[in-house]
Amino acid sequence: MKVKLLAILTLAAPLVFSSAVQAENPQQVQRLLQTGECIKCNLSGADLTGAHLIGSDLRGANLKGANLSRANIEGADLTGANLEGANLSSTFATNVNFKQADLDRVNFSNAKIHNSNVYQASMNDMTLDGADIAETGIGVGGEDVTIPDWD
Questions:
Q1: Are strands 92-94 and 112-114 parallel, antiparallel or unpaired?
Q2: Model-level pTM?
Q3: Cα–Cα distance for residue pair 91/45, rounded to 1 Å
Q4: pLDDT band at 14 (very low <50, low <70, confident <90, very high)
Q5: How many CA atoms lie within 13 A of 75 on its CB side?
Q6: Are strands 112-114 and 132-134 parallel, antiparallel or unpaired?
């Protein structure tokens, strides 16, 4: 009986864990961390916790469901990036270009977001608990906010 159970678990394990293993492209994650550039990369589900991504070029990248908690993305270009459902809690996000990015359901809890561009970004159901937001077109509690584009 133990042999049959072990055989079943051995065969079923790849099916159960395959989505987590295939959620990111390890070569593209390594490229981003080494060069600071990963245009249109598939980084969905990537664990970038605490990463130093200062000035990184992530235009058009797929970061859906990625974990960027405690990361430093100061000056990063995320124009047109998909960050839907990503965790950016406690992230340092000053001077970031989120223009036309998908920020739906992003967790920005306790993040510092200053002087960032959110022009034409989709920003539905974001979590902003404890976030420090200044000079950025993100409003809290229905406040009227102007969202200018960067020149």
A1: parallel
A2: 0.80
A3: 17
A4: very low
A5: 7
A6: parallel
